[in-house]
Amino acid sequence: MAADAMNPAVNSNYSKDCTGNYQLRCESGDMTGKHGQLEIATFSDKNRPTFSYVDNNLELGGAYSIAGRSLGLHLPSSEGGALFDCATITPFYTSDDLITVYTPESEYTTRTEFVKKVSGDNIPPNDVLIVGQRVSNGCVMTVMRTLGETQGIANGYANILDNRADTQFTQCDPDVESGGHLPFLAPLLLLIPLLSTLL
C-alpha cells in the first residue's frame, strides 16, 4: 500500500525495481519497499530492538510535504496485511531548557518518572524530551526539550518547567556539580517501523 496515485500492485516489476539500493524508484510512502520489513517483538519483550531510519527523500515542507499525512503499520501480507496501528505526522517547534534540581536518588527511578515529576499536570508527557542528563550526589542536571505546535507553546512549556523547578524542588549549586559535562543525546524524533507505509 503506497502513497500517491500510483499503485505498485499493478506493476509486476515494482518489487524488483523498488529496493533499498534504489529508493527513488519506490513510491514516496513505500517504507517497506525502501527499507524492508521488520520483525517486531511483543511489547512485553524487554529485549526488543528499537529502530530508527532517515529518509532524505521525504519533504517536511512545500507542496510535497508529508506533514499532516500518516504512517501506517500493517501486518504482513501472509496475515492479511491489515492496518495494525498508525500515527499522524505533525510539525512541531522546540525550546531547550537546563533544569538543575536536587532530588533524593531513592526517588529518582527513571527518566520517564523524572519528566512526570518536573512537568506536573500542565505539560503532556510526550511533549517533553530529555536530551542530556547527569545524576550526581542527588543533583539531577538535565537539558529538557519541550515540543509545541507553535514556538510560543514550546516556549511556554519551557517556562512551566522553569517555574516548577524553582518552586517544587530544592536547587542544586551548579559550582558543586561542575565536574564533567552533560552527555548530550540526539533525540529520537521519529521511529519508522519498516512495515510502515505512508497512507
Automatic annotation (TrEMBL):
GO biological process terms, alphabetically, are: superoxide metabolic process
Gene Ontology MF terms in the entry: metal ion binding
Q: Which InterPro entries match?
A: Cu-only_SOD, SOD-like_Cu/Zn_dom_sf
Q: Where is the signal peptide?
A: none
List the PANTHER family: AGAP001623-PA (PTHR20910), SUPEROXIDE DISMUTASE COPPER_ZINC BINDING DOMAIN-CONTAINING PROTEIN (PTHR20910:SF1)
Name recorded for this polypeptide: Uncharacterized protein
Question: Which organism's genome codes for this protein?
Answer: Geodia barretti
